[in-house]
Amino acid sequence: MILVTGGAGYIGSHCVLSLLENKQEVVVFDNLSTGFQETIDELKKIGNLKFIKGDLSKKEDLNSLFENYKIDSVFHFAAFSQVKESVLNPQKYYSNNVSGTINLLEAMIKNNVKKIVFSSTAAIYGEVQYVPIDEKHIQKPMNPYGKTKLMIENILDDYDNAYGVKSVRLRYFNVVGADIKKRIGERHNPETHLIPNVLKSTFNDARPFEIYGNDYNTKDGTCIRDYINIEDLIDAHLKALKYLENGGKTDFFNLGNAQGYSVKEVFEICKKVTEKDIQFNINKRREGDPEKLVADNKKAKEILNWNPKRNLEYGIKAAYEWEKKLQGGLKNA
Ligand code: UDP
Protein backbone atom coordinates (compact mmCIF):
# COMPACT_ATOMS: atom_id res chain seq x y z
CA MET A 1 0.00 0.00 0.00
CA ILE A 2 1.19 3.53 -0.75
CA LEU A 3 0.92 6.30 1.84
CA VAL A 4 0.21 9.81 0.58
CA THR A 5 0.50 12.53 3.22
CA GLY A 6 -1.31 15.70 2.24
CA GLY A 7 -3.46 13.78 -0.24
CA ALA A 8 -6.40 16.15 0.23
CA GLY A 9 -4.39 19.11 -1.09
CA TYR A 10 -3.84 20.32 -4.63
CA ILE A 11 -0.78 18.35 -5.74
CA GLY A 12 -1.23 15.41 -3.34
CA SER A 13 -4.77 14.77 -4.56
CA HIS A 14 -3.68 14.61 -8.21
CA CYS A 15 -1.02 12.09 -7.21
CA VAL A 16 -3.66 9.98 -5.44
CA LEU A 17 -5.89 10.18 -8.52
CA SER A 18 -3.13 8.86 -10.73
CA LEU A 19 -2.19 6.08 -8.31
CA LEU A 20 -5.82 4.96 -8.06
CA GLU A 21 -6.19 5.01 -11.84
CA ASN A 22 -3.13 2.74 -11.93
CA LYS A 23 -4.98 0.36 -9.58
CA GLN A 24 -2.73 0.99 -6.60
CA GLU A 25 -4.01 0.79 -3.04
CA VAL A 26 -3.62 4.13 -1.34
CA VAL A 27 -3.97 5.49 2.18
CA VAL A 28 -4.17 9.26 2.56
CA PHE A 29 -3.08 10.90 5.82
CA ASP A 30 -4.18 14.53 6.04
CA ASN A 31 -5.34 16.84 8.84
CA LEU A 32 -7.62 18.76 6.43
CA SER A 33 -6.15 22.07 7.63
CA THR A 34 -5.74 23.23 4.03
CA GLY A 35 -7.09 20.24 2.12
CA PHE A 36 -10.74 19.38 1.56
CA GLN A 37 -13.01 16.50 2.54
CA GLU A 38 -14.85 16.89 -0.81
CA THR A 39 -11.59 16.07 -2.57
CA ILE A 40 -11.30 12.84 -0.59
CA ASP A 41 -14.95 12.01 -1.32
CA GLU A 42 -14.31 12.50 -5.03
CA LEU A 43 -11.15 10.35 -4.97
CA LYS A 44 -12.94 7.53 -3.12
CA LYS A 45 -15.17 7.09 -6.18
CA ILE A 46 -12.13 6.21 -8.29
CA GLY A 47 -10.51 3.31 -6.50
CA ASN A 48 -9.33 1.62 -3.33
CA LEU A 49 -8.67 4.62 -1.09
CA LYS A 50 -8.47 4.76 2.69
CA PHE A 51 -8.49 8.09 4.43
CA ILE A 52 -7.07 8.82 7.86
CA LYS A 53 -7.66 12.25 9.31
CA GLY A 54 -4.46 12.66 11.27
CA ASP A 55 -1.75 15.12 12.13
CA LEU A 56 2.00 14.75 11.67
CA SER A 57 2.54 16.40 15.06
CA LYS A 58 0.77 13.49 16.79
CA LYS A 59 3.02 10.45 17.00
CA GLU A 60 0.06 8.33 18.11
CA ASP A 61 -1.75 9.17 14.83
CA LEU A 62 1.30 8.06 12.87
CA ASN A 63 1.81 4.93 14.95
CA SER A 64 -1.72 3.72 14.40
CA LEU A 65 -1.47 4.55 10.69
CA PHE A 66 1.58 2.33 10.25
CA GLU A 67 0.13 -0.37 12.51
CA ASN A 68 -3.15 -0.54 10.62
CA TYR A 69 -1.83 -0.47 7.06
CA LYS A 70 0.98 -2.36 5.40
CA ILE A 71 2.81 0.58 3.88
CA ASP A 72 5.57 0.02 1.30
CA SER A 73 6.42 3.56 0.28
CA VAL A 74 5.49 7.17 0.97
CA PHE A 75 4.68 10.29 -1.03
CA HIS A 76 5.07 13.20 1.37
CA PHE A 77 3.12 16.30 0.34
CA ALA A 78 1.73 17.45 3.70
CA ALA A 79 3.15 20.92 4.41
CA PHE A 80 2.25 24.55 4.74
CA SER A 81 3.33 26.37 1.60
CA GLN A 82 2.59 30.08 1.75
CA VAL A 83 5.72 32.17 1.58
CA LYS A 84 4.24 35.29 3.17
CA GLU A 85 2.65 33.40 6.03
CA SER A 86 5.95 31.64 6.69
CA VAL A 87 7.65 35.02 7.19
CA LEU A 88 4.95 36.18 9.61
CA ASN A 89 4.64 32.87 11.48
CA PRO A 90 7.82 30.81 11.11
CA GLN A 91 6.97 28.72 14.19
CA LYS A 92 4.01 27.24 12.31
CA TYR A 93 6.29 26.28 9.40
CA TYR A 94 9.24 24.85 11.31
CA SER A 95 6.93 22.94 13.60
CA ASN A 96 4.63 21.43 10.97
CA ASN A 97 6.96 21.04 8.00
CA VAL A 98 10.21 20.10 9.74
CA SER A 99 9.13 18.45 13.02
CA GLY A 100 6.19 16.80 11.27
CA THR A 101 8.53 15.24 8.70
CA ILE A 102 10.88 14.03 11.44
CA ASN A 103 7.90 12.29 13.10
CA LEU A 104 6.92 10.72 9.80
CA LEU A 105 10.47 9.48 9.21
CA GLU A 106 10.61 8.06 12.73
CA ALA A 107 7.44 6.05 12.09
CA MET A 108 8.78 4.91 8.72
CA ILE A 109 12.05 3.67 10.19
CA LYS A 110 10.27 1.93 13.06
CA ASN A 111 8.16 0.07 10.52
CA ASN A 112 10.99 -0.59 8.08
CA VAL A 113 9.57 1.65 5.32
CA LYS A 114 12.56 2.95 3.38
CA LYS A 115 11.25 4.74 0.29
CA ILE A 116 10.00 8.34 0.23
CA VAL A 117 9.23 10.79 -2.57
CA PHE A 118 9.31 14.28 -1.12
CA SER A 119 7.62 17.41 -2.38
CA SER A 120 10.33 20.07 -2.50
CA THR A 121 10.44 23.42 -4.23
CA ALA A 122 12.45 25.80 -6.39
CA ALA A 123 12.20 28.17 -3.39
CA ILE A 124 15.18 26.32 -1.88
CA TYR A 125 17.48 28.04 -4.40
CA GLY A 126 16.75 31.55 -3.12
CA GLU A 127 18.23 34.52 -4.94
CA VAL A 128 18.68 33.45 -8.54
CA GLN A 129 22.29 33.50 -9.74
CA TYR A 130 21.57 32.26 -13.27
CA VAL A 131 18.81 30.77 -15.42
CA PRO A 132 17.94 28.11 -16.31
CA ILE A 133 18.42 26.88 -12.75
CA ASP A 134 19.99 23.44 -12.49
CA GLU A 135 20.18 21.30 -9.36
CA LYS A 136 23.71 22.51 -8.61
CA HIS A 137 22.55 26.12 -8.20
CA ILE A 138 23.45 27.56 -4.81
CA GLN A 139 20.78 26.89 -2.18
CA LYS A 140 20.08 29.93 -0.03
CA PRO A 141 16.32 30.13 0.52
CA MET A 142 15.00 33.62 1.24
CA ASN A 143 12.05 32.73 3.46
CA PRO A 144 11.15 30.22 6.19
CA TYR A 145 9.01 28.19 3.78
CA GLY A 146 11.98 27.53 1.47
CA LYS A 147 14.23 26.97 4.47
CA THR A 148 11.95 24.24 5.86
CA LYS A 149 12.05 22.40 2.53
CA LEU A 150 15.84 22.64 2.30
CA MET A 151 16.21 21.48 5.92
CA ILE A 152 14.11 18.42 5.11
CA GLU A 153 16.24 17.68 2.04
CA ASN A 154 19.32 17.77 4.30
CA ILE A 155 17.63 15.59 6.91
CA LEU A 156 16.80 13.07 4.19
CA ASP A 157 20.48 12.82 3.23
CA ASP A 158 21.45 12.12 6.83
CA TYR A 159 18.65 9.57 7.23
CA ASP A 160 19.87 7.73 4.15
CA ASN A 161 23.42 7.60 5.55
CA ALA A 162 22.32 6.48 9.00
CA TYR A 163 19.15 4.44 8.44
CA GLY A 164 19.09 3.62 4.73
CA VAL A 165 15.96 5.67 3.93
CA LYS A 166 16.07 6.29 0.18
CA SER A 167 14.49 9.54 -1.03
CA VAL A 168 13.70 11.37 -4.21
CA ARG A 169 13.18 15.09 -3.73
CA LEU A 170 11.22 16.81 -6.46
CA ARG A 171 11.77 20.55 -6.69
CA TYR A 172 8.68 22.08 -8.21
CA PHE A 173 8.60 25.26 -10.24
CA ASN A 174 5.11 26.79 -10.79
CA VAL A 175 2.38 24.17 -11.07
CA VAL A 176 -0.65 24.70 -13.31
CA GLY A 177 -3.76 22.75 -14.27
CA ALA A 178 -6.37 20.40 -12.94
CA ASP A 179 -7.80 16.97 -13.61
CA ILE A 180 -9.02 17.07 -17.21
CA LYS A 181 -12.27 15.36 -16.11
CA LYS A 182 -12.85 18.14 -13.54
CA ARG A 183 -13.07 15.78 -10.56
CA ILE A 184 -10.41 17.69 -8.64
CA GLY A 185 -8.36 20.85 -9.09
CA GLU A 186 -6.54 23.69 -7.39
CA ARG A 187 -8.29 25.19 -4.41
CA HIS A 188 -6.66 27.44 -1.84
CA ASN A 189 -8.11 29.71 0.77
CA PRO A 190 -6.95 32.44 0.41
CA GLU A 191 -5.86 32.02 -3.20
CA THR A 192 -2.55 33.77 -3.87
CA HIS A 193 -1.44 32.16 -7.14
CA LEU A 194 -1.35 33.89 -10.48
CA ILE A 195 -3.44 31.65 -12.75
CA PRO A 196 -6.38 30.95 -10.38
CA ASN A 197 -6.43 34.66 -9.51
CA VAL A 198 -6.66 35.73 -13.15
CA LEU A 199 -9.36 33.13 -13.79
CA LYS A 200 -11.33 34.11 -10.67
CA SER A 201 -11.33 37.75 -11.80
CA THR A 202 -13.46 36.77 -14.83
CA PHE A 203 -16.46 35.85 -12.71
CA ASN A 204 -19.15 38.22 -11.55
CA ASP A 205 -18.45 40.46 -8.56
CA ALA A 206 -14.80 39.40 -8.51
CA ARG A 207 -12.09 41.93 -7.78
CA PRO A 208 -9.93 42.94 -10.77
CA PHE A 209 -6.70 41.09 -11.23
CA GLU A 210 -3.56 42.76 -9.88
CA ILE A 211 -0.17 42.45 -11.57
CA TYR A 212 2.54 42.69 -8.93
CA GLY A 213 5.08 44.96 -10.57
CA ASN A 214 5.82 45.88 -14.20
CA ASP A 215 9.27 47.34 -13.64
CA TYR A 216 11.33 44.15 -13.58
CA ASN A 217 14.26 43.73 -15.93
CA THR A 218 12.38 41.39 -18.29
CA LYS A 219 11.01 41.70 -21.83
CA ASP A 220 7.70 43.29 -20.72
CA GLY A 221 8.62 44.29 -17.16
CA THR A 222 6.67 41.50 -15.44
CA CYS A 223 8.12 38.45 -13.66
CA ILE A 224 8.98 35.28 -15.54
CA ARG A 225 8.04 31.84 -14.25
CA ASP A 226 8.21 28.27 -15.51
CA TYR A 227 4.78 26.59 -15.43
CA ILE A 228 4.72 22.82 -15.18
CA ASN A 229 1.48 20.99 -15.83
CA ILE A 230 0.05 19.02 -12.91
CA GLU A 231 -0.31 15.83 -15.02
CA ASP A 232 3.33 16.03 -16.11
CA LEU A 233 4.34 16.77 -12.53
CA ILE A 234 2.52 13.69 -11.28
CA ASP A 235 4.07 11.53 -14.03
CA ALA A 236 7.42 12.47 -12.55
CA HIS A 237 6.26 11.34 -9.09
CA LEU A 238 5.24 7.93 -10.36
CA LYS A 239 8.55 7.62 -12.20
CA ALA A 240 10.39 8.65 -9.03
CA LEU A 241 8.74 5.85 -7.08
CA LYS A 242 9.58 3.33 -9.82
CA TYR A 243 13.16 4.58 -9.71
CA LEU A 244 13.34 3.90 -5.95
CA GLU A 245 11.64 0.52 -6.36
CA ASN A 246 14.32 -0.39 -8.89
CA GLY A 247 17.02 0.34 -6.32
CA GLY A 248 17.76 3.96 -7.32
CA LYS A 249 19.92 6.00 -4.97
CA THR A 250 18.77 9.06 -3.05
CA ASP A 251 18.58 11.98 -5.48
CA PHE A 252 16.85 15.29 -6.29
CA PHE A 253 15.37 16.74 -9.47
CA ASN A 254 13.93 19.98 -10.78
CA LEU A 255 10.44 19.68 -12.19
CA GLY A 256 9.74 22.46 -14.65
CA ASN A 257 9.09 22.88 -18.35
CA ALA A 258 12.36 24.70 -19.06
CA GLN A 259 10.36 27.53 -20.60
CA GLY A 260 9.65 30.95 -19.10
CA TYR A 261 6.43 32.96 -19.41
CA SER A 262 5.95 36.52 -18.12
CA VAL A 263 2.90 37.43 -16.02
CA LYS A 264 1.57 39.40 -19.01
CA GLU A 265 2.00 36.43 -21.33
CA VAL A 266 0.12 34.22 -18.88
CA PHE A 267 -2.56 36.87 -18.71
CA GLU A 268 -2.89 36.91 -22.52
CA ILE A 269 -3.30 33.12 -22.65
CA CYS A 270 -5.99 33.37 -19.95
CA LYS A 271 -7.82 35.94 -22.10
CA LYS A 272 -7.67 33.62 -25.10
CA VAL A 273 -8.85 30.59 -23.13
CA THR A 274 -11.70 32.37 -21.32
CA GLU A 275 -12.65 34.52 -24.35
CA LYS A 276 -13.11 37.38 -21.89
CA ASP A 277 -11.69 40.87 -21.92
CA ILE A 278 -10.08 40.57 -18.51
CA GLN A 279 -9.13 43.79 -16.74
CA PHE A 280 -6.04 44.28 -14.66
CA ASN A 281 -4.40 46.87 -12.40
CA ILE A 282 -0.69 47.34 -11.99
CA ASN A 283 0.22 47.10 -8.36
CA LYS A 284 3.58 47.40 -6.65
CA ARG A 285 6.03 44.48 -6.54
CA ARG A 286 5.24 41.68 -4.11
CA GLU A 287 8.00 41.35 -1.55
CA GLY A 288 10.38 38.44 -2.14
CA ASP A 289 9.34 37.73 -5.75
CA PRO A 290 12.39 36.80 -7.86
CA GLU A 291 12.50 38.33 -11.34
CA LYS A 292 12.96 35.13 -13.30
CA LEU A 293 12.62 31.44 -12.43
CA VAL A 294 13.16 28.89 -15.17
CA ALA A 295 14.15 25.27 -14.63
CA ASP A 296 16.89 23.28 -16.21
CA ASN A 297 15.05 19.93 -16.28
CA LYS A 298 17.67 17.78 -18.03
CA LYS A 299 18.49 15.72 -14.96
CA ALA A 300 14.91 14.49 -14.46
CA LYS A 301 14.66 13.74 -18.18
CA GLU A 302 17.86 11.72 -18.17
CA ILE A 303 17.61 9.83 -14.89
CA LEU A 304 13.85 9.48 -14.39
CA ASN A 305 13.16 9.20 -18.10
CA TRP A 306 10.55 11.92 -17.66
CA ASN A 307 9.25 14.00 -20.51
CA PRO A 308 6.78 16.83 -19.83
CA LYS A 309 4.28 17.04 -22.68
CA ARG A 310 1.53 19.55 -21.84
CA ASN A 311 1.80 23.21 -22.76
CA LEU A 312 0.65 26.18 -20.72
CA GLU A 313 -2.56 26.75 -22.69
CA TYR A 314 -3.66 23.17 -22.00
CA GLY A 315 -3.06 23.70 -18.27
CA ILE A 316 -4.93 26.99 -18.20
CA LYS A 317 -7.88 25.43 -20.05
CA ALA A 318 -8.12 22.65 -17.45
CA ALA A 319 -7.76 25.18 -14.62
CA TYR A 320 -10.57 27.30 -16.15
CA GLU A 321 -12.93 24.34 -16.46
CA TRP A 322 -12.24 23.51 -12.82
CA GLU A 323 -12.69 27.12 -11.73
CA LYS A 324 -16.11 27.20 -13.43
CA LYS A 325 -17.09 24.15 -11.41
CA LEU A 326 -15.81 25.74 -8.18
CA GLN A 327 -17.69 28.96 -8.87
CA GLY A 328 -20.81 27.07 -9.76
CA GLY A 329 -21.22 24.86 -6.76
CA LEU A 330 -18.31 24.34 -4.45
CA LYS A 331 -17.90 28.08 -3.87
CA ASN A 332 -19.19 28.14 -0.31
CA ALA A 333 -18.34 24.57 0.55
N1 UDP B 1 1.30 37.41 -9.48
C1 UDP B 1 0.59 38.54 -9.85
N2 UDP B 1 -0.70 38.66 -9.37
C2 UDP B 1 -1.31 37.74 -8.57
C3 UDP B 1 -0.57 36.58 -8.21
C4 UDP B 1 0.73 36.45 -8.69
O1 UDP B 1 1.09 39.40 -10.57
O2 UDP B 1 -2.48 37.92 -8.16
C5 UDP B 1 2.67 37.23 -10.00
C6 UDP B 1 3.73 37.06 -8.91
O3 UDP B 1 4.25 38.33 -8.56
C7 UDP B 1 4.77 36.19 -9.60
C8 UDP B 1 3.94 35.32 -10.56
O4 UDP B 1 2.70 36.00 -10.71
O5 UDP B 1 5.63 36.97 -10.37
C9 UDP B 1 3.67 33.92 -10.04
O6 UDP B 1 3.17 34.01 -8.70
P1 UDP B 1 2.52 32.78 -7.93
O7 UDP B 1 2.07 33.29 -6.58
O8 UDP B 1 1.51 32.14 -8.79
O9 UDP B 1 3.72 31.76 -7.75
P2 UDP B 1 5.21 31.96 -7.15
O10 UDP B 1 6.10 32.13 -8.32
O11 UDP B 1 5.18 33.12 -6.22
O12 UDP B 1 5.43 30.66 -6.45
Structure in words:
The chain contains 11 helices and 12 strands. By secondary structure, the chain is an alpha/beta fold. It folds into 2 domains: 2-175 and 228-257, Rossmann fold (3-Layer(aba) Sandwich), CATH 3.40.50; 194-224 and 259-301 and 311-330, UDP-galactose 4-epimerase, domain 1, CATH 3.90.25.10. The strands form 3 sheets. Strands 3-2-1-4-5-6-10 form a 7-stranded parallel beta sheet, with helices on both faces. A 3-stranded mixed beta sheet has the order 7-9-11. Helix 7 packs across helix 9 (263-274) and helix 7 (194-200) crosses helix 11 (312-330). The longest helix is centred in the first third of the chain and has 21 residues, at 90-110. Bound molecules: uridine-5'-diphosphate.
Which oligomeric form is depicted?
single chain
Helix/strand order, N-terminal first: EHEHEHEHHEHEEHEEHEEHEHH
Rounded to the nearest angstrom, the distance between the terminal CA atoms is 31 Å
Q: Summarize the main sheet.
A: 7 strands, parallel
Per the CATH scheme, the topology name of the largest domain is Rossmann fold
Helix percent reads: 40-55%
Class from helix and strand fractions? alpha/beta
Low-confidence stretches: none
Number of domains: 2
CATH 2nd-level architecture of the largest domain: 3-Layer(aba) Sandwich
Number of helices: 11
CATH level 1 name of the largest domain: Alpha Beta
